[in-house]
User: What shape does this take?
Amino acid sequence: MYDVELYRDVRLAVVEEGLSERGAARRFGIDRRTVKKALRYSAPPGYRRTQPVRRPKLDSFTGIIDAILAADRDIPRKQRHTAQRIFERLRDEHGFSGGYTIIKDYVRQQRLTTREAFVPLYHPPGHAQVDFGEAVIEMGGCRVKAHVFFMILPHSGAWFVKAYPRETAEAFLDGHVSAFAFFGGVPQSILYDNTTLAVAKILGDGTRRRTHAFSHLQSHYLFRDRFARPGKGNDKGSVEALVKIGRRTFFVPIPRVSGFDLLNENLAAGCLARLDKLAGDGALLADLEALRPLPAVPFDACEQRAGRVSSTSLVRYRTVDYSVPVAYAHREVMVKGYVDRVEIACGATVIASHPRCYERGAVIYEPLHYLPLLEQKPGALEQAAPLRGWQLDPAFDELCRLMQARFGHRGKREYIQVLRLLEDFPESHVTAAVQDAVRRRLIGFDAVKHLLLARIERRPAHLDLDRYPHLPQPFVAATKAADYASLLSGSPDHG
Assistant: This one.
């Protein structure tokens, strides 16, 4: 195939220099037909077929292939025929004797000609699109999957990104609350896919039944929802593109972070940088001005579930058991699941709060919840599961040993009473009092409490030593009058 430079040189030589076609063919080492073609066209026209391609082995099967491809349009993408599968069916079901390549080429060509075309869309200011994506991060030396919430204002291209351990209802809600706070307002409408986090059911007439949590979110912030057609990701092409851009921008290379808090700090910085980049664009100002004002109080982004406390003072939320004080055993409670914590309430009173755990089947104890029961049943101290792994200062173990050695079985109860001081006082103060008691060998609950209160009140500790007969008693001899005579009968230096 000749290039356009040759055509240029041939045309200049003939037209400007007056070189004959024969002379041009001789000068450039080409056929005279090529010279004629160069004079006719300014660039090589390429190969032009005048007759349709004949494919004797394929032509009688193209109707079958076209029917398969047409039927695939109404089938989920992951279950559509590949070229290989079409070839196998033609061979096994229809007696096709040709090769795979001719089938592959035909299928590719047909899919190109039937690909959907799209109308460019105008996005008015003040509207948004939302979607979740996934990315791999490195946390604590291990690679884990992050579920990333994306919101974009398509008119300006401003975006908000936040990562979560799981794609849950509370993450979905928190993503909206955080995005609204970031933009300083609420979009007039938001476009979604048909995520089950928002859509409980698609009815026969195409209308959506919203989830309770999503309806509550809408009612609080007063925005309209819109939903893409099932399987039509292009309906929300802006956020679909953002998912790809965000993954390349924020997660390549794989970020190494200590936790999701640090990861989201980095993502927030990237979102702010994006706003700064768009600051001089009138589209951003139009977007922000079209947002509705935030309500006075942010939405409580949590999932609420009713629960019942077990006999072991545990409440289950999403496959994880969380402890509550033993006084609430067997009671009905309300569980609030947030992204980062779980709160448990009995009536209007929050009775427990734990960091959120996503490990299936885990049990999360607060040791303080079980101390009142252990005080009644001190014999269970050594085997109490809630106390296993409790990270207390080694002085506590030493105090427990000394108490049991001195008081026997009663020593367990006294030690549990010391632990119960942690219910009312800071751990640092109680720890210091226990360390002081062990150092002074003041082995008893009353002594530890006295040392603790003295520390808190910033006064010296005045202990009644009669209550601790095991301590060495100081001896102070009685003073005699004769002892003073020696002071008077001494050397002349005394006077």
